Amino acid sequence: MWSVGVITYMLISGLSPFLGETDVETMNYIVNCNWDFGAEAFEQISEEAKDFVSRLLIKEKCGRMSAANCLKHEWLTDLPAKAKKSRARLKSQLLLQRYMAQRKWKKHFYVVAAANRLRRFPSMSENPA
């Protein structure tokens, strides 16, 4: 459930909850469960979402929500109605939209497609003429 909290934090903010300036600092943040909701990254995020993450990023396993409790959490209930009310876009959505708009993905797609086509051709050593 700890991982669900970390992934949720990252998806809604685009940031890592424990990232430090160095690997040692990051490890200390993880071990001590030292994290917060940065003002700028979380200004458009609901209190329900923050509560969901807060109940998962708890050092002691017994203090975290279970999977069953997560599914019953108020943040995950009545999602269609909440989606209609909210016009806020997640930072991760904006970054993905920017990536798609730059069309870099298309170049990557063509490279992978070309590599797959090349793999289908028999090698010259297999079919001597």
Automatic annotation (TrEMBL):
UniProt record, GO biological process: intracellular signal transduction; positive regulation of apoptotic process
InterPro entries reported for this sequence: Kinase-like_dom_sf, Prot_kinase_dom
Protein name: Protein kinase domain-containing protein
Natural source organism: Phrynocephalus forsythii
Signal peptide: 1-20
Superkingdom of the organism of origin: Eukaryota
Alphabetized Gene3D superfamilies for the sequence: Transferase(Phosphotransferase) domain 1
Pfam families: Pkinase
Keywords (A to Z) from UniProt: ATP-binding, Kinase, Nucleotide-binding, Serine/threonine-protein kinase, Signal, Transferase
Record domain Protein kinase: where: 1-76
A molecular-function term among this protein's GO annotations: ATP binding
Entry GO terms, CC: nucleus
Family to which this protein belongs: Belongs to the protein kinase superfamily. CAMK Ser/Thr protein kinase family.
PANTHER family hit by this protein: MYOSIN LIGHT CHAIN KINASE, SMOOTH MUSCLE, SERINE/THREONINE-PROTEIN KINASE 17
